[in-house]
Amino acid sequence: MAEISGVLAAVLSSGLGGTSIGATRYLVSSLDPLAIGSFRFGIGFLLLLPLTLLRGDRWPGRGDRSAAIGLGILFFALFPILFNASLIFTTAARGALALSTLPLLSLVIGAALGAEALTWRKSIGVVIATLGVAVALLSDLASAPAGAWRGDLLMMAAALCMALYGIWSKPLIGRSSPIAFTTMGMAAGAVCLILLSYIRGSFTPVSGFCLPQWLAALYLGAFGAAVTFYLWAFALERTTPTRVAISVTVNPITASLVGAWLLNESLRWNLAAGIVAVFAGIWIATTTGRRAQAASSQA
Predict the structure, then answer these.
(1) Domain locations in the chain?
(2) 219 CB-near residues (< 8 Å, 6+ apart)
């Protein structure tokens, strides 16, 4: 049951992450990516902190704090910097496909570090889900600016940050709590982004914000940060890093649906086919085959 709740939390987290792309794309015309990240994770931290204190959740212990802060900087500062920088060179579709290498990276690195077993079922599920993303984005992948490979590599580096965070944070989350661990890491990442934004003068346009911009920033902080990354940590506590990571293939799907709803972007047949493949891949990777079930029942 815990395994199922972890997978569902990861899928919901990635789905919310996809909707956050719409809010980010709305804000990016008036605010630079560093400032957007500062608002997103700064507001997220301010929302998670009182909840953590009211619940009395267990914070990372003294021996785990430096690791929690370091992983927070990796995930909540370096990852968004690489993510946003990649989109300077490549298209959103190619970037989404590059980010979808996350489950493959998690599978290989997790197996190399002994964090989880490498199985055929997980491998096939990861490949099918990744192909589903490629099919969903098929019509947008052909057009690429010169030097798009730079952006693709930057996005794969961002995916590597996520993979390492998922693998290294799992035991730390188990020794504290998902909310407290996420709150501490988000605070570390937000401080880095806010300092960089202040040095670059990225907050100057905020004085001209109207209600829609503030609502978009609040949405990113509440749902794009606090809820999304609490669910991610909740999932990591209950299932393997690869099973959490494969849910990221839902992200570009929900981003496309939000784009069609809010930004009047067209929907094509390949999106429907991609959705089917993505969820088929997630189902294969996160369920156990009959032979494995029989073996576990006999043990």
Answers:
(1) 2-287
(2) 20, 23
